[in-house]
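discrete fold record:
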Amino acid sequence: MNEYFTLESMGTFAGMVVVLTVIVQFLKPLIDKIVCMPTRYVVWIIAIIISAVYQAIAGPFTWAAIFLLILNSIVLTMAAMGTYEVTFKKIETK
């Protein structure tokens, strides 16, 4: 394994969830200091940004791609928040 993360692995659902979860966990303390916003919306905004950047690299923006980007970002948000519940929250409550 020469590379930790590739564009191809990020293009998968699992890859996007991992990237989203890690970025949110890294940025959440900073975001909490700047603006008071429910975590769900922070995760969704970051999911949209990550998905849009990937879409810009992978192919053109069409109306269908934008629509799917929004829907997929909602699914990514729910998956990343579920990943947090299973992993990080159990550590915090101990």
